[in-house]
Every structure is written in C-alpha cells, then in structure tokens.
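Contributing: when you submit paired examples, paste them exactly as shown. First protein:
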Amino acid sequence: MQKRNTQQRRNDIVEWVNQAGHVHVDEMASRFGTSQVTIRKDLAALAAEKRVLREFGGAAPLPSAETKHNTPLSTVTARKIAIAQEAAQFVSDGTKLILDNGNTTAALLPFLHQQKLVVLTNSLSIAGALTSAENEPTVLMTGGTWDAHSQSFQGEMAKNMITAYSFDVAFIGASGLDVSRGSTTFNELTGLSQAMAEVARKVVILAESDKFFHRMPNLELAWDNIDVLVTDNRIDENTKQQLEDKGVSVKIAPLNGD
C-alpha cells in the first residue's frame, strides 16, 4: 500500500509541476500531507528518472525541445544539466568529492547515484538535497561564516575544515572565466575555492562557455590549479586550444539541438 501511495504521489507531483511551472517543497508537503524530507526524496527520485527538473527549494518542468530553442533561460538550464552530466564521469563508487556552492555544481546532484560516496560542501542547499536522497552519501559540511552574497559558508573555519581532509575530485563553479588568468569572481572571498583545489587530486571547473565574456576583477583559481574545464559546445575553438596549451583538459558537453 505504501509503495503504491508513493508512486501515486510522485505522479501527482509531476502533473502539478508541469501545470504550475515551479512548485516549492513546502507547498508540496502541505498539499500531500507529508514531510519536506519525504518530498525531497520524491524530487530526487523524479529528477533521476528525468521526469522533473530539480531546483533549489522545489522543482520545475523539464525544458521541452521547443522551449530549449525559443527561451534563453531554459536553454541555459539545459546547458547546466548537460555540463553536470558530462562532469559526472569523474565520479565512481567510493569517490571522495567536493561540491562547491552554485547552480551548475548543484546540477550534479541527480547524477550522483554511485555507492559509498563522501561529499563535502559549503552549501546548505546542496547538503540538504544530499541528505534527503534515497542513496544518501556521507555528507560533510565546512561550517564557517555564512556569506549571503554567495549563499555559502566561507572564512577561516571553513578552510580549516577542508584542509583536514583529502579528496579525489573537487567540482567548482565559476562566475567568470579569463583565458589568460583562470576562473574569476567579483567576490573577494576566494580562499575557500583555493583550499578546495589544494586538497583534491583533480580539480574540475563546471562553467558555461559564455562565462568567458564575464569580466571579473578577482582571480579565484589560476589555470595552473585547474585540471579539467567542463563546458558546453559553444566554446570557441581558439579558446579551447589556448586552454589545452596550458595543460587544461577541456571536456565539451553535447547539447541536442544546439
């Protein structure tokens, strides 16, 4: 009976999300008379089945082929998903990984279905999604000082937490990319990303190719500290070659119809 009720609730969630466009977790919990933890597990399962798009605080419909072509925002969302799916190749059973805060790194969540993962993050939203997943990994939080701008924990305490461990791979986002310097940001709090890179055997940057047009004053990670850039198929061939000449492996995520 419980299994049937769960499946029916998930079917109803998909129908509601497709009709409403975006539904919050608390709204779903109230409507179906269940806890937010249960709803998050439902959304994790539905996202893995590619029936809804998991977003912070709720869910949205998957972008249709028509929407991808006509709506820039939906195309960006599709590109983030494609990048995350390509980056997931660096995760296998037992991987110890870092997930930096950000929308593109969070897009990895539906693809983290491997066994016995250890995941460290400085994002409350990512930690919440991980701990409500059916295949829950071991989750580590950095702690530290909450930074409202980046919606993440930063500061010396967070850095100290990170440096106490070692990791197989660090997935880090980027506000901007500079072909000469590396990943860049407006935020002056770059120390945590640098600490993440120092304790990981492989550093993977997840960023859409248009980030090369975002001019940011502060260097976050130099290309010397980056092993892989996972981006979309709009990257300029000359830019790709320049990065490869610097020793960075450039992985291009395919996007149907682009």
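Second protein:
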Amino acid sequence: MARAIWSGYINFGLVSVPVGLYSATQEHEIDFHQFQKGTSDRIRYKRVNERTGREVPYEKIVKGHDVGGGEYVIVEPEELDDIAPGKSRSLEIDTFVDLDEIDPMHFQKSYYLGPKDGDNASSYGLLRDALAKTNRAGIAKFVMRGKEYLATIRADGKVLVLETMYFADEIRDPAEELGELPRKSSSGKQLSMAVDLIEAMSGEWKPTAYEDTYTERVKELVKSKHAGKEIVYSEEEPQATNPTDLVAALRASVEEARKKRTAKKTPTKKTAAKKTTAKKTAKKSAAKKKAA
C-alpha cells in the first residue's frame, strides 16, 4: 500500500473523519540530463552563496520575502508551521455544492482520500455515499507542504477524491490576456452545420482510447539513436480554413464523420452474422454426428 503524503481529518458539522491523502495520477516523463553541446560534460546546479561563492547545504537554507529596496524578511520553516490553519491537519468543509456548478477551470490536481483506520471506516463510507447520492462536493481548505489549498471532496465509486483548486483570484481574466474576442456567430447556417458536425463526431468518453503518442515517439527516438539509426517523422502542419470556404469544409466534415460512424457500426453486424452462421454450422455438424 502506498504511503500517505498528507494525513488529517475531514471536518463537516460536528463530524471528524480521519483520512490520508494519496496521489491519484502520474505523468509520463522521459528523464533527460543537461550536457554542454558537443561534449559529454554534465551540467549541474548548485546552491551557491552569491557573496562568498561557496555552496550551501540544503538544511542551511531559509526563505526570505522581498519587501522592496533590497530588503528581505527571513522566515523560518517552524514559523510557517505555527501559523498554518488547523496545524495543517484539518480539511474543514465550509459548504456542499452541486458538482455541475463547478467550472473545470478551477480544478488543479486529483488525489485519493482513504480512511486512516478501520475503526472510522464507516464514517468515511457514510460521507462518500451521501455525496454520491446528492451529486455534491464538499468545499474545503487545507495546508500541505507550506501552501494553503482550496479543494473539493467528491465521491467516485468506492473512493473519496480530493481535487485541489485555484482560488478565484488565481484565474486570469481572458479579456486581459487575449484582448478582444470574436462576437457570436452571425451566420445561422454556419452555426447549424457546426452543431451537426459536433453531433456527428459525438460519442462516449473512453479514457483508455487515448494514449501519449509523443512520449512513445521520444522513447523510439532515444532507442534508435542508441542503435545508431535515424528516425524521421514527416507530418504536415495544419492551415487555417479560409472563411469563404468554411461552409464547404463543415459540410465535407459532417459527411466524413457520418461515414466513419457507419463504418464503425458495420463490422459489428458482420461479426454478429458470422457468429450466427457458426452456431448454425455447429448445430448441423452435431446433428449429422448424432444421426451417424
């Protein structure tokens, strides 16, 4: 069993549920070291005192906040722990909200919440089942590794999932970042065809159908170079569709999407027909053997 990266209590009303926090995701990563170009010399980073030029051990490093004018306020790790709300061990649910009301923009990272001990497993299960029945999530704040997080706690099958979230002031205003954005589409025909295309390309969400092809290509590249071989991928970059060709492009896309959908359904019918034929053949063979 994995080791909890944080442990504490979910508090709602007068109820406290001891839980542990566990990583729910992992990213595909290819490790690369840095080298000076044209050599086999590794590039390494060191924590160096800029005044003395000497390397400083990690345990001798403290944090300092720039208050302007070249002045810094030094803060010790113990001081940060002392001011942490609930001594960093409390997931205090403030309110319960409908999951559908939360904009996915706020979600940051997923974690599993597990019961801390068998004695309190029933309290854990009760909260999980109540959240699932109401389709709601608990909104809470907690401190982990020197940072306060906003979080949702929701049910997902047999487990409680905690999603760390961005605070409202951490989400940038699109108008400030992107400037003026296009107004609503003026062409009813274009909008209607775009809706048709979305409907034609719609399907069930199947996460296992998607793979990290880029990471696989990086692995293949490294393997080929190690073997002294050259590997080349040639793919054309997409070009923007001319506004005058938009309707034609939409129409062609809808037709292509419908053909693909039909092609996916056809093999299923053929397979079913083959199975039926096979069953009939098997029955005939069995009847012949019996008669013989």
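If you have annotations for the second protein, write them as plain sentences, like these:
The radius of gyration is 29 Å.
Strands lie at 6-12, 15-23, 63-68, 71-75, 90-98, 107-115, 136-144, 147-156, 159-165.
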